[in-house]
Structures are given as C-alpha cells and as structure tokens.
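User: I'm curious whether this sequence folds into something compact or stays loose and floppy. Could you predict its structure so I can see for myself?
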Amino acid sequence: MDILKTTLLYDFYGELLTDKQKEIYELFYQNDMSLTEIAGELDISRQAVRDQLKRTEKILSEYEQKLGLVERFMADRNSAQQIRRLIDELEDKCAFSPEAVAIAEKIRKAVDEITE
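Assistant: Here's the prediction. I'll summarize afterward.
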C-alpha cells in the first residue's frame, strides 16, 4: 500500500483501532522499525507482527471504503489547489485594483489553510 495513502488512512481512522494495532502501526510506519525489531520489543513473533500490520492495513482500507473520508479530503484538496492556480492566472492576466489584489491574497491564504 502507498505510504502516503496509508498515513492518511491512519490520520483519519487511527483512533478507531485497538491500542495494539496502533502501537504496531506506529512502530512500523512512524518509527521506521523493522518487523524483527518490533517483534523483539513486543516479545511476539515476527509473523505475528506482520499479520497484525496486514490486518490493520485492511481495517483502515475497509473504513475508507465505507466512509470515503480520505477520498473526499483529497478531492477537496485538489479543488482548493485548482482555485489557487485560477486566482494566480487571473491576477497574471488582469490588471487588479489594489483592493482586488488584497482580496486575491485573502483567497490564497484561505486556500493555503485548506491544503496544508
């Protein structure tokens, strides 16, 4: 699974996981530990770590299939970026009054807040 998508899934749905699922996910993806390192730290087999990680990824994907929050977030983010590009293009092609420039800058800041 793509690391960006996995990270977004965890950001959106991580609180719905069990403590053990969160712990293994965070050790693997956020702390960049290997399966063997995690197994040693948690005193379980490497296979158990792998199985738990795969189960957690599947659970996160199922939440997304049902709720679609990440997909909606990405679509909104893309729309906001498109607004930013259109404002830039409009400002480049048209002579704006100082008031219009100030409004365009406010729109850019609002868009930037959405896309961060």
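Summary: The radius of gyration is 21 Å. The chain has six helices and no strands.
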